[in-house]
Amino acid sequence: MTMIFGIPLQAFLGQLLIGLINGSFYALLSLGLAVIFGLLRVINFAHGVQYMLGAFAAMLMLQYFGINYWFALILSPLVVGLFGAVIERFLLSRLYKLDHLYGLLFTFGLALTLEGTFRYLYGASGQPYAVPAQLAGGTNLGFMFLPIYRGWVVVVSLLACIGTWLLIEKTKLGSYLRAATENPVLVQAFGVNVPVLLTFTYALGAGLAAFAGVLAAPVYQVSPLMGSNIIIVVFAVVVVGGMGSIMGAILTGYMLGIAEGLTKVFYPEASNIVIFVIMAIVLLLRPAGLFGRDA
Amino acid sequence: MSDMTHSSTTTVRAERSATASKTYAAFLILGLVLLIVAPAFFYPIFLMKLLCFALFACAFNLLLGYTGLLSFGHATFFGGAAYFSAHVVKEWGFPPELGVLTGVAGAAVLGLIMGFFAIRRQGIYFAMITLALSQMFFFFCLQAEFTKGEDGIQSVPRGHLFGFIDLNSSTNMYYFVLAVFVIGLVIIWRFINSPFGMILRSIRENEQRAISLGYSVARYKLGAFVMSAALAGLAGGTKALVFQFATLTDVAWQMSGEVILMTLLGGIGTLIGPIFGAGLVVTLQNYLATSQFPVTIITGIVFMVCVLVFRRGIIGEFYASRLGRKLGFEHRR
């Protein structure tokens, strides 16, 4: 058997793949957080719950309406995005004038309520969601066995990240968003409806989280607690990357996912905390974050 | 404010604050008397739990209310101290007073470490860093040997205070907890009214100006962080003796959220507000504990309502109300 650093190659690549998958979710979620924060100046604590809602929406659609994975992949982000838009329009938008911390606290309360409700309705344990038939099984790459669905997750989330980046950096809508980040009053004076832009941005972030949730449903179990488990790690990712740059958020997500996967190979006891340790080291060396502009 | 009106407002203010401190003193004495006779009317364990959480919330408020730093990681100090106290009392046979002090010292050290990293960033990042570091501590407690993992440290002996007061009697235990609570509050009160506390408030109001006045802001923030952590540890260590166990619940992020809610509900930046907030939250939890209904739904809704329409909190609203102003209180914002 081929060995690498004294570890069987199979195990090494297997963990690398898991790291890459976790990294995909970190990237999608921290991207959404960064987009929302960039414009709304709100740290969306409910991001994890929106990820959980995405997975639940997919599962419930299948259970009650027989809507399959492929439609859920589109419908679920739309539903959760719409829900986010309502929350933003009627509640969150009242807090923009206040200290940013109130936005964090509000979304924290929202997260607690939603998580509690789903826990009440569906229990704390996870429920399985089957891998769609078209992506079931695996393929032997010669040096390792690759479950097709896992490869799909990596590719699709990468595409989603690049798509969002293109949307923000290269389209007209994106240019409005970036301009409104710099100076909302001036952009409004030019006739752009900034409040609608804010609602759209929040819905976009929530939708991205839900998209990640649908992707995650077949990999992990669909559980009410899946959101709060991941959101704290994503916060650490955001601290490491700094929220100034979209690309920074994406890259940091993948890097830390891989770092976590590799730690599982070499020193499994520390795999839970390695991201937090990296965060602490980055804070010592580059307090503004790897890609951060604002301290 | 122009110079003309300045002197007259100052006199009005001085008179007002004189009335306020009289009313304050009256309320404090009343509150203390109530707490002394309370065990005759309420279940002592419930009262002790309430006092521990009230002290925890006041310690937290020292940081949020008086320094303007929102820590999302205070469970580390509360739960960490509970583990330390429980461990030294049970395994090393420390007397209770030394056990609690060990918890305080441990929490202060943890506060120094977390504060050292967290004060490098401000505002929202500060909150996220403290949350992440406290999650790291949670995983540490989950895996460490001495915390006994999922079981926690069970059946911690209460022992004899100073060698002769038997804390297994719940009356004795109650008055010990009450004494700890009062000592903790006096320390907080002294701290926020000291020159150090004044500088902290100036940092909260305008950090740039405090820097330009030559204060080493980072050092003051770290000092406040360690102080707040140590007092949270005082509450946590005492709680471990009251309930005779220390578990993962106390170091989990939900606990950090709870203490924020208590402070917000009672009134950020008021000395006694968090006590009322803690009282309400603990009562609510007790009430819902027997039902199947999850507490987090209610606490989440209370959180949102507070943030949207009730940001001053109970005591803050009282100070700002007509009655409160008549009694001579003032409230900022």
Automatic annotation (TrEMBL), chain A:
Arranged from A to Z, the UniProt key words for this protein are: Amino-acid transport, Cell membrane, Membrane, Transmembrane, Transmembrane helix, Transport
Topology versus the membrane: Multi-pass membrane protein
Main localization is membrane
Question: Which parts pass through the membrane?
Answer: 12-37, 49-67, 73-92, 101-122, 149-168, 189-218, 230-254, 266-285
According to the lineage, what is the superkingdom?
Bacteria
Q: Which InterPro entries match?
A: ABC_transp_permease, BCAA_transport_permease
Q: What is any Pfam family matched here?
A: BPD_transp_2
Q: Where in the cell is it found?
A: Cell membrane
What protein family does this chain belong to?
Answer: Belongs to the binding-protein-dependent transport system permease family. LivHM subfamily.
Instruction: Tell me the protein's name.
Output: Branched-chain amino acid ABC transporter permease
Species whose genome carries this gene: Neorhizobium turbinariae
